[in-house]
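Bug #77: duplicate submission created two jobs. Keeping one. Sequence:
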Amino acid sequence: MTDQIENYTLNKKAWLRYFARISDMFFMLILLISVMGFAFMILALIALKLFPSYLFPWDMLSSLLVFVQTLLIIIVYLFIEAKIISKYGTTPFKKLLGISIVDINGEKLDYKTSLIRNLTLWLKGLGLTIPFISLIALIMSYNGYVEQGTTPWDKDNGVVVQYEPISTIRFAIGIIFGISALIFNAYFSFQ
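Kept job's structure:
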């Protein structure tokens, strides 16, 4: 009976972590896409002025430019999130769902540890956000967390994820944001 309760608790915590992560990522990425997209648009206009389309095959490079922009946005996000976690011990949606990230002494992470954790999470937990690889990485991470009670990126960096009790309203709001982020992500992925 105790094992069932523990597995249920870890299962619930895994989903809370997931919804907090995708909500944080989605809303931060919208902000970054807005800012960096504007910067890329300005650079593209300057480049088009310097290298007209009859001299340079811009249509062939558009997919490459979108890929580079996406990669840059993800990398910038990882650095920003590391800074937020090192300063506040949580992120907006982790806070909403009662999750905080601390070291084994209960102190906030320093920036370097937070960044290394984020990069490890991006590699091992999100499969570098590469389609299909990411799905496999997420499933493996979930199973590992439920079985071991921790993740490689937390264990390797001496990080403890703490949970505080939250109200039903906060829980519902967090889940609604998480599901909304999934729906918007799916919608925009197929556009």
